Amino acid sequence: MALESSVLESRFTDLALASANFGFLLPYEPLLVLHGASCEARAATAPADAVAAARQFGEVLAAEVGHRTGVRLPAGDQPARLDLLSRAGVLVPQVLDAFNDLHRFDGSTREGREAAAHLVERCFMLASWFFRALTGDAESMNFVHTAASDLSVLAQRVAALEEDLPRLRREFDLRVSPVTLAVAEREQLIVSARDAAYEPLRESDIAAEVQRRLAKAGWDVLGAGEETQLNHSLGCVLVEPRLAGGRRADMLLTVGGQVVGIVECKRDGADLTNAMEQAGALAEATAGSLPWPLWRSPLPYRYVSDGRRLLFCDANDPEPHARLVSGFHQPRTLARWQREAEADSAAPTYRARQAAYLPRQDKGFDQLRVAQHGAVRAIEQALAAGQRRALVHMAAGSGRSFTGVFTAYRQLRYARADRVLFVADRKLAVRQLIAQLRQFGMPDGGRRLDDVYHVQELTADGLAASASVAVATVQRLSAMLAGTPALEDGSDRVSAYETAERQAHRDATPLEVAYCEALPPDAFDLVIVDDCHRALYGQRRALLEYFDAPIVGFSATPTATALGFFKGNLVDSYTYEQAVADGVAVDYSVYEIRVADDRQPAFATPVDAVGVKAHSSRRARYEDLDEELASTAGQGPARAVSSEHLAAVVTAFRDALPTLFPDRTQQSGALGVVPKTVVLAQDGPHADEVVERIRDMFGAGDVFCRRITHRDAHAAHLLREFRTTPQFRIAVVTDPISGFSDMRAIECLLILREVRSAAYYEQLLAMGTQTIASAELRAVTPGAVAKTQLVVVDAVGASRQLQPLVNVTDASGQAGRAALERLLSRAADGLVTSQETAELAIRLARLIPVLSDADGAEIRKLAGRPLQELVTRLLDSVDSDHLAPLRRAGGKSAVEDERRAALFPLAENPELQEMLLGLYDRPAPLRVTASSQRRRQEATVRGRLAEFIERAGPFTPAQLWWIEKIADVVAAETRFAPAYLDGVPFSARGGTDGFLDAFGPDAAIDLLDELRRALA
Q1: What DSSP element (H or E) covers 420?
Q2: For the chain, is the Cβ count within 10 Å smaller at the N or the C terminus?
Q3: In 488-603, which ranges are continuous DSSP H helix?
């Protein structure tokens, strides 16, 4: 019979009073008191029961921690729970080890008293950790060895509650159901949990630990009687020097014989913010009270520490803010800061220079897109305001990497950053970043970035003293800072997105870092992270927290974990929908292939595929990208289309292609050329089988379809062939994220294996939604007019929960015209819904790639704005983030007014409607006819090219090929970026490497700069 709540409460109170080791948990979770006390009471008399109680203690505590930190955990799977908590960054190694100890024994076999006693202490260790995480109380907690008589009483009080345990557990499971926390709140709880994992130091040990950390950073700690030897080394530490009024500082720092800073030691758990104020008072009291020369008074460099945490403040900063750092700065770093402050008293620090100089400089912004310009300015404003972490969301294909490079250039050039670190997800991305950095032409003089600021890949040997920019993989940082195994296994060639997707039971052990002399915490002034997997912000977050530098993160798919690490500071967002509206990306359509038991395939659009995404904020949608963590934890290998169904699926795909690309069908009804297609397979053997099936079903040879994986010996060569040759139509891959960049010609994605992660799925889409110039597309896909969409064909149901804004599957031909005409008519009648408004925007966006200059000018004349702006306003009118302030200010009517205003240029303009519908009625080639203005541009470039060849020649035929092709690009694009050398048609002759071979490494760069200036 269940106990009354008052009786139950009384018995729990009695139990807590009897348990010296677990009673303090009663206000936080009574079940933890019950299971902890049960383990302790029975460790000696019933070890197997004690082991079972310890196991239950761990399960309840993990569920409670997940609930409080907002990490969604699966029910009944403790290893998966611990995996997810570790990946979210909540558990550090020693806490994870304790949890694993509790779970290691299943309680079903006889366990010895020694093991049971060990588990009691492990439960207590976790109880203390949980208490410190919730309260911030850093007082040391000691385990109490309870007398046998008291254990007997404890066992009786446990027994009085055990009959209600099943009901209590059911109520607990309901109480800890998933909750959604604000990312800043979640981050604070995670940080508290990590801090609580370390046992407080004894007060007598704190000063010794601080001195050890100073020595590690290169400081010479002077002993008694050595106070006059300040020139013994660059940086010296004076211990307990006497100040004016009889006061003493714990330590003073000297650089080059001058006192520059102060260090104060406080008891573990003390409020370091208050302690910093005290340190500031002591820094001011040093004026005229010391026998040693002072650099400045008050002392600018101030540290306070409790032996574990280290708080630092630079008083030279504008509006100084104290910040936690992982270690003391090296003497040479403070010496550099001194020199910088003396050279520029108006802006003496890196942060001061950001605020003083960057807003006044705008050179080079004319080469940025609007989204890139906004991102750079937002980053600079955040850094100038002293924000240490800033996240930028930029849709794939919108120039994210170039934005990072441009940001680094401005920080080096105008804010005079000493060194910048780029962190990338894999080796290929590092190589691409290094090439982009080295080829970047600085706007203020035209020199290459690498000529002035040396760019270097980070290796195990560390950095050259001359390096101003370092580029590293996450794996390289992990090897140097956390001692993980070296990278001979090729792991740095695979994206963490793919690794996490592929492994059924991945290693969730959180990383701990140690001081690295080859890469000290103050090695960089700025860290830029280029779209790395969320693990870097969760279980590997210590790699970033190690550096005392602002962190700027770029992401195409920000998740809750990333937002939490950046404390919700999303400084700029350029969404995929905005990229589609601006013509920077194309949208995508989703189809499914369903195979019944009789193996007859059915080709269809997914159920509930059409419709606007849920009316939640963009931030909420980003945070939901972490939900798949719980649903996939502990599962086995991802599902894939089996051998028995493979032929049917490939046949259905082949037969549907003419319908999917109706504007490319021949009079016979067959498709002229298969679009460039990527097929996602399960693994190597599955990929080989898929290749054979595709060749058989399409009746094609070996070149038509081939496998590409990162472990293939000629992967880079195959990628180049797929990107540049018309013959190679279908690439079967197992890991596209780790090899496919700048695959702009891809128009179709066939998914043959399960995709578990929303972030991973969006990465796949990003590969194919990049835009491509019509001429470049026709070079590899003869007969194509323009790339207007990505077609996603899903044979495993991966897309059912991950739909596009609107799944438009009939945008071409007369079906597309009829659908657009229907929407325009409803808009004119004032009947269009929000869902139809979004559909109208997407259908108009499909026209952007096929507009000629004359078409664009006519639309601008009739509508009063470009088509891109019309699409943007339509999408904004159904976007919850854009509408939120309008709804708060004016309610529902303001939202409706916004949508009517967006529709007005279309609804009230029959001439514009006819013009848009007329685009469907023209023969396709007319849509891309060059305007007279473009023809004049081509003639101008050809004249300048002839002058250049005559002046700079002679050239060999091979060299002339490169020069003439570069001129073709300038005529079409009005500019030529070095990165274009890795695209069509240059990649057919080796890309950048082929260009360097043709002219010689040194002469090639100079010639390219001269040619660009001559043709501009």
Answers
A1: strand 420-424
A2: N
A3: 496-502, 542-545, 560-565, 576-581
* 3-class SS of residue 828: helix
Residue pLDDT, tens place only, 775-820: 788 888 888 888 888 999 999 877 765 555 566 666 666 777 888 8
DSSP string, 167-227: HHHHHHHHHT------HHHHHHHHHHHHHTTSPPPPHHHHHHHHHHHHHHTT-EE--TT-T
Top pLDDT among 442 and 289 is at 442
Given a contact cutoff of 8 angstroms between Cβ atoms, the answer to whether 511 and 539 are in contact is: yes
CA distances 913 to 860, 900, 909, 910, 922, Å, are: 13, 16, 6, 5, 15
What are the C-alpha distances in Å from 254 to residues 160, 259, 336, 535? 65, 4, 14, 40
CB-based burial label for 508 (10 Å; 0-12, 13-18, 19+): buried
Place of tokens 């499971």: 173
Tokens of 507: 């290693």
Residues whose CB is less than 8 angstroms from the CB of residue 342 and which lie 6 or more positions away in sequence, other chains included = none
> Pick from 807, 812, 805, 806: which is nearest to 846 by CA?
812
* Cα→Cα distances 209→262, 311, 436, 740, 798, Å: 16, 15, 44, 48, 53
Q: Buried b vs exposed e over 362-390: b needs ≥16 C-beta within 10 Å?
A: eebeeebbebbbbbbbbbbbbbbebbbbb
Residue 77 has pLDDT above 90, yes or no: no
Question: Global pTM?
Answer: 0.80
Nearest Cα to Cα of residue 603 among 646, 649, 665: 649
Q: Are 397 and 769 in contact (CB under 8 A)?
A: yes
- Written as six digits, the tokens of 939 are 């003639």
- Distance between CA 662 and CA 781 in Å, rounded? 15
Q: Element (H or E) spanning 421, and its range? A: strand 420-424
Q: How far apart are CA 699 and CA 743, in angstroms?
A: 25
The values of phi and psi at residue 873, to 5°, are -65, -35
Neighbouring residues of 405: CB distance < 8 A, sequence distance ≥ 6: 433, 436, 437, 440, 449
Question: CB within 8 A of 240, min separation 6: which ones?
Answer: 248, 249, 250, 251
Q: Is residue 416 exposed (0-12), middle (13-18) or buried (19+ Cβ within 10 Å)?
A: middle
Using DSSP, state whether 632 is helix, strand or coil: helix
Q: What is the DSSP string of 889-958?
A: HHHHHHHHHHHHHHHHHHHT-HHHHHHHHHTTTS-GGGGGPPPHHHHHHHHHHHHHHHHHHHHH----HH
Closest of 43, 97, 879 to residue 508, by C-alpha: 97
DSSP state of 2: P
What single letter denotes the amino acid at residue 26? L
What would the two tokens of residue 558 be?
């920000």
Q: How confident is the model at residue 635 (pLDDT cuts 50, 70, 90)?
A: low
Q: Is 62 exposed, middle or buried (0-12, 13-18, 19+ CB in 10 A)?
A: buried
DSSP secondary structure letters along 636-686: -SPPB--HHHHHHHHHHHHHHHHHHSGGGB-TTS-BSSPPPEEEE-SSHHH
pLDDT tens-place string over residues 916-967 = 888 876 654 444 444 445 566 777 888 888 888 888 878 887 788 888 888 8
Please tell me the total number of residues recorded for the chain in this structure.
Answer: 1016
CA–CA separation, 768 and 759 (whole Å): 15
**E strands, 43-202, in order:** none
- DSSP lists the bridge partners of residue 236 as 220, 254
| CA distance linking residue 819 with residue 808, whole number of Å | 10
Beta bridge partners of 604: 592
- Which residue spans within 727-794 are E strands per DSSP? 730-733, 748-751, 789-794
